[in-house]
């Protein structure tokens, strides 16, 4: 088989230029993944290179698997060498050479849920609570320490005996240090390595041990890196360490698809590649084989609005299709209705459901879509996350409502200890036994035994009062009001806030919105029982049999994929771009994300949005990205409300003025003494990376202030 067959001239150049440093700057859908796979096959089949001497690094495990499959098809060889993510590759290195850092071969690789388990042990041992620091903040803090504040931490981990780490942990005085050293201690105790450690340890071995480094350098005759636009500094360093012997490095990236700068990715690595390495050959690939000219015209017009950009336009090669369609609904329900209607139309025309994909920026957007899909019996499957009514917080909230009206055991079990009321396994066993002996519900068992010593020092009495009061008072009240009140008064929302689970809080806000919509569309006489019946329909409904299903996923999940028909839903200010966008660069990244979403579509693209109100009650405007696309590239399905467009422009103009210019944000650590030009000296108590701000206790003030990273602070 001729591996070069069907490739265009640029792709052939990329495939056959095997020696030296090669950079491919490729547009979306220009066949870079195809070129990469063909290059691997060319090296193996045509040049006779052993697959085990090629390293091909992809961005996710999923793309590594896909790449391995493509290469397997091309080479027919089962040995596909090192096709892996950076982390996966480091695992291979450490499995062979971890003795160099005195770690066993069977070390443990840990993810976020393992980290949380370790944190739980530390909190328990040291009497910390989530109020001291929620887990997500603790994880961020550990990451910041490992990557920015204490980048040499791994030397301690490697060199310090376990006992010394233990002492550091137990003698630490600040919450941060207790957690950090507790975590390092826990890690070392079970020879566990998180994603940062994998790369740091591998780099350390390469730096310290010339022999091992040379062994890997010599082994990897050809190195190829995909999605280079999203490479971070540590991965870059690793790449540098690996390619130094044969000097055969091939990188592919698209500056317009950088969507991970928030995780440390740096586009400069791609743009400055030719300055860092000798005799770099650059190949530009802008021929797009994926999308219709109409879709590309709209996507090009959007991305052109980014100022900080390597200028290039995609050239279409696919047959012409319909213009990009824009639905502007009055409410999110209407938007979802239009989407469902269009899906039915497409299906009638013979388009299988599996060719249709709904993309969105934020998970909570799926609620309206799912309701409509279920109602219209359109089979679907969610690729990122769980169905809306199956999400933990939604089930919990509905169980609180069930406690008000039916007090059934299932609901009781679900929420009795959420938030913590000190009713754990042992007390539940007691209640279960009592209930079965006396033929009553668990709630009645609790009521009858509330004075018993077993239930002393628990939140039992408060819980009973909460449920009784709501049961008595909620008659005749709107369900939405009751739901908001019970989530507040039970402490459930507070628990989520303390955990820092913004996504879950957003989902709850969306649930409240759904209840509110239900009330307004159903007339006066709705009550909790009616609503629960309505919700049960969604939570128990089957989403359809078989494989022919509409796909729902976030834009991040869709990276690297392609679909014949794409709907980008919830294209509103505050959703897409996300309301968390605070800086000019952040906004450009959101625009790139929108560009990635648009360029997933092959035959037809729909952009949909809705009026009404946001989760925080503010009025909802169409996304600035709709305005960014030249009007003549869009087909609106109903006359455009010009007044709304004008108002949106004013809103966008105002909000753009608030975006901060990005400075080099090397943040200061908690504990640092600083001087503010007006408030005077103070101490940084906490660094909140997501809010781009410090929490500072100024000497002159009784309470703390949150101060933006951009404020002029002088280190003392
Ligand atoms: N030379 C070619 N002729 C025809 N079709 C091609 C050619 N090269 C690639 N394609 C097709 O174009 C589509 C896009 O290719 P591929 O997925 O490799 O692009 P990509 O550059 O990795 O995309 P992205 O960066 O947007 O994820 C695929 O369906 C692929 O089969």
From TrEMBL:
<keyword id="KW-0378">Hydrolase</keyword>
<dbReference type="GO" id="GO:0005524">
    <property type="term" value="F:ATP binding"/>
</dbReference>
<dbReference type="InterPro" id="IPR000212">
    <property type="entry name" value="DNA_helicase_UvrD/REP"/>
</dbReference>
<feature type="domain" description="UvrD-like helicase ATP-binding">
    <location>
        <begin position="5"/>
        <end position="292"/>
    </location>
</feature>
<keyword id="KW-0238">DNA-binding</keyword>
<feature type="domain" description="UvrD-like helicase C-terminal">
    <location>
        <begin position="293"/>
        <end position="560"/>
    </location>
</feature>
<dbReference type="GO" id="GO:0005829">
    <property type="term" value="C:cytosol"/>
</dbReference>
<dbReference type="InterPro" id="IPR027417">
    <property type="entry name" value="P-loop_NTPase"/>
</dbReference>
<dbReference type="GO" id="GO:0043138">
    <property type="term" value="F:3'-5' DNA helicase activity"/>
</dbReference>
<keyword id="KW-0347">Helicase</keyword>
<dbReference type="InterPro" id="IPR013986">
    <property type="entry name" value="DExx_box_DNA_helicase_dom_sf"/>
</dbReference>
<comment type="similarity">
    <text>Belongs to the helicase family. UvrD subfamily.</text>
</comment>
<keyword id="KW-0067">ATP-binding</keyword>
<dbReference type="InterPro" id="IPR014017">
    <property type="entry name" value="DNA_helicase_UvrD-like_C"/>
</dbReference>
<dbReference type="Pfam" id="PF00580">
    <property type="entry name" value="UvrD-helicase"/>
</dbReference>
<dbReference type="Pfam" id="PF13361">
    <property type="entry name" value="UvrD_C"/>
</dbReference>
<dbReference type="GO" id="GO:0016787">
    <property type="term" value="F:hydrolase activity"/>
</dbReference>
<keyword id="KW-0547">Nucleotide-binding</keyword>
<dbReference type="GO" id="GO:0000725">
    <property type="term" value="P:recombinational repair"/>
</dbReference>
<dbReference type="GO" id="GO:0003677">
    <property type="term" value="F:DNA binding"/>
</dbReference>
<protein>
    <recommendedName>
        <fullName>DNA 3'-5' helicase</fullName>
        <ecNumber>5.6.2.4</ecNumber>
    </recommendedName>
</protein>
<dbReference type="GO" id="GO:0033202">
    <property type="term" value="C:DNA helicase complex"/>
</dbReference>
<keyword id="KW-0413">Isomerase</keyword>
<feature type="binding site">
    <location>
        <begin position="26"/>
        <end position="33"/>
    </location>
    <ligand>
        <name>ATP</name>
    </ligand>
</feature>
<dbReference type="InterPro" id="IPR014016">
    <property type="entry name" value="UvrD-like_ATP-bd"/>
</dbReference>
């Amino acid at each position: 088989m001729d591996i070069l067959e069907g490739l265009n001239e640029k792709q052939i150049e990329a495939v056959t230029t095997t020696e030296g440093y090669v950079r491919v700057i490729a547009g979306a859908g220009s066949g870079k993944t195809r070129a990469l796979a063909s290059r691997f096959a060319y090296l193996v089949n045509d040049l006779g290179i052993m697959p085990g001497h090629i390293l091909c690094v992809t961005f996710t495990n999923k793309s590594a698997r896909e790449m391995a499959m493509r290469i397997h098809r091309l080479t027919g060889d089962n040995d596909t060498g090192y096709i892996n993510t950076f982390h996966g590759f480091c695992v291979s290195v450490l499995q062979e050479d971890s003795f160099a850092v005195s770690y066993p071969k069977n070390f443990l690789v840990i993810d976020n849920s393992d980290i949380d388990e370790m944190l739980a042990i530390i909190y328990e041992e040291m009497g910390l609570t989530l109020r001291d620091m929620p887990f997500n903040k603790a994880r961020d803090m550990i990451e910041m320490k490992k990557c920015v504040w204490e980048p040499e931490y791994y030397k301690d981990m490697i060199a310090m005996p376990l006992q010394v780490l233990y002492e550091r942990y137990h003698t630490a005085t600040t919450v941060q240090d207790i957690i950090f050293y507790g975590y390092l201690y826990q890690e070392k105790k079970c020879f566990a390595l998180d994603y940062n450690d994998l790369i740091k340890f591998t780099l350390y071995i390469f730096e310290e041990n010339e022999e091992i480094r040379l062994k890997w350098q010599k082994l990897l005759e050809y190195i190829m890196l995909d999605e280079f636009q999203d490479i971070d500094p540590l991965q870059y360093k690793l790449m540098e360490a690996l390619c130094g012997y044969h000097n055969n490095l091939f990188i592919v990236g698209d500056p317009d698809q950088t969507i991970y700068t928030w995780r440390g990715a740096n586009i400069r690595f791609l743009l400055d590649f030719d300055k860092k390495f000798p005799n770099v050959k650059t190949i530009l690939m802008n021929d797009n084989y994926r999308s219709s000219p109409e879709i590309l015209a709209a996507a090009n017009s959007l991305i052109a609005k980014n100022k900080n950009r390597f200028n290039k336009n995609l050239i279409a090669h696919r047959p012409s299709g319909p213009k990009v369609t824009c639905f502007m609904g009055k409410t999110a329900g209407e938007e979802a209705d239009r989407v469902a209607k269009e899906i039915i139309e497409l299906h009638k025309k013979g388009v299988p459901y599996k060719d249709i994909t709904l993309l969105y920026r934020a998970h909570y957007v799926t609620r309206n879509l799912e309701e409509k899909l279920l109602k219209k019996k359109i089979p679907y499957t969610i690729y990122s996350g769980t169905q809306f009514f199956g999400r933990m917080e939604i089930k919990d909230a509905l169980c609180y409502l069930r406690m008000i009206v039916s007090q059934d055991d299932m609901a009781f079990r679900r929420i009795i200890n959420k938030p913590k009321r000190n009713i754990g396994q042992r007390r539940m066993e007691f209640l279960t036994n009592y209930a079965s002996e006396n033929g009553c519900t668990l709630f009645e068992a609790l009521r009858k035994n509330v004075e018993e010593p077993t239930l002393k020092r628990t939140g039992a009495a408060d819980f009973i009062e909460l449920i009784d009061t709501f049961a008595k008072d909620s008659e005749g009240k709107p369900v939405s009001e009751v739901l908001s009140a019970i989530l507040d008064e039970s402490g459930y929302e507070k628990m989520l806030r303390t955990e820092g689970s913004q996504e879950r809080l957003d989902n709850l806000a969306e649930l409240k919105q759904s209840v509110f919509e239900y009330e307004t569309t159903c007339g006066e006489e709705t009550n909790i029982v009616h609503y629960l019946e309505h919700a049960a329909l969604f939570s128990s409904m089957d989403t359809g049999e078989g494989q022919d299903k509409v796909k729902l996923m976030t834009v991040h999940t869709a990276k690297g994929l392609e679909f014949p028909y794409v709907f980008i839903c919830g294209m509103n200010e505050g959703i897409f771009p996300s309301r968390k966008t605070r800086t000019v660069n952040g906004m450009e990244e959101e625009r790139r994300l929108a560009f990635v979403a648009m360029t997933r579509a092959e035959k037809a693209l729909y952009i949909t949005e809705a009026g009404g109100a946001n989760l925080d009650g503010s009025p909802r405007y169409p996304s600035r990205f709709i305005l960014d696309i030249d009007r003549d590239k869009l087909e609106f399905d109903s006359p455009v409300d010009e007044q709304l467009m004008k108002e949106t422009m004013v809103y966008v103009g105002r909000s753009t003025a608030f975006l901060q210019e990005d400075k080099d944000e090397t943040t200061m650590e908690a504990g640092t003494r600083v001087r503010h030009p007006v408030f005077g000296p103070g101490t940084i108590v906490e660094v909140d990376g997501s809010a781009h701000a410090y929490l500072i206790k100024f000497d002159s003030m009784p309470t703390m202030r949150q101060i933006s990273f951009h404020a002029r602070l002088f280190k003392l």
